[in-house]
Amino acid sequence: MMNIGEFARLGGISTRMLRHYDALGLLVPAHVDPFTARRSYDAAQLPVLNQLLALKGLGFSLDEVGTHLTREQRCCDSPGAVPGPGARCGPGRQRPSREVRPPLVPPCGTSGGEVSRL
Length: 118
Prior knowledge:
This protein is about 35% helix and about 10% strand.
């Protein structure tokens, strides 16, 4: 486990953004101390952070990123992992899911006037 500052440095983002992602339910710390509210992250959460940043870099909104990440990715270390004491992986932390439709793209060989869904 590492504190929020260490995790932010490894992920190349600010602690402020990690707190924002936590508030949105996109990347919940593996453990939050009940007395000090200090957030701790697990190294297994770095791939989830990298995926979140990659999707954001591709132009997806944070709402769309949330639909691409599974509940296990947003709330726990890895799929099937059991959250530790103080972890906030519960129904109250889960964001409502909605289906994201694929982007409209012109089919190959068309002028762009015709559009189809992938």
